[in-house]
Specification:
single chain, alpha+beta, elongated, two-stranded parallel sheet, 8 helices, 2 domains, 276 residues, four-stranded antiparallel β-sheet
Length: 276
Amino acid sequence: MKKTLSRSGEEGKDHLAAEPSISLKDAKLTQLDQLIELPDRKEITLCEAVTAFVYGKACDSRQWNRDRLKEPVDFLGLEQIHAMTDRTETTEPVDTSSRKAKDLLELLHSAAYAGRIKFRAIQEGEDPADGYKDIDPLYFYIKPVFNWPQDVIFQPENESSTPWYFVHLDREQFVSLLREIGVSVKRSPDTDVQGERKTFRTGAAGRPTSKHLVMKEAQRRLDAGSYPEFLKTFSEELENWLKVAEPDAAPMTAKTIQNNLRELWRRKPPKIIDSC
């Protein structure tokens, strides 16, 4: 990675970003076959991302600060964020965990600038009720400080830059980035995050079901007019589709699928016959 010049002319001490590169050849993250747990949400907090990577299990900002800093944490102003950043950096030992966190943040910074990971947060002075806003990738051209224990990103040397609070990032994009460095996310059968978890559990004795997957595929085929003459045949086709398309999902027999599809089949649109 290219060295940078600070505004005072000293080498390597500014937050100006080097040219972003997330090539694994240059990455310092070398661990393989690591398995971590992430919250089952579309977006996760910056603190959750870092703690999951470093310790294997996600921890949110409030829990981290309560357990680590032994103090309650409410919404902090920028001066408090500065103070807590300085204190954290000076009191945390330079151990394997600290290095892993630092290396991950370097990777996240490069990915954010390259547009590979979407960050969302609330700007200072904005009403949280107005919702989160996307952080433009160009914001990361000047390398910010990732105060991950507080879920805050800011640029201490740029007075015109507005800090971002309650920072979240796209979970699926984060998982994709982790895969490239040999880190896997633990699967759970109880959620439905695209590409990760495929089966819900019903309230009936905890038995898993893939009904939602089959119904969605059935509706797609019916809408497209791609279905056979008989429901029995259609159910058998869907049984085979589930085995091939979703091998990790709970299996369903053609008979079970047929029983679940009767109403959908009855309301199916007529096929469009090509007269040419």
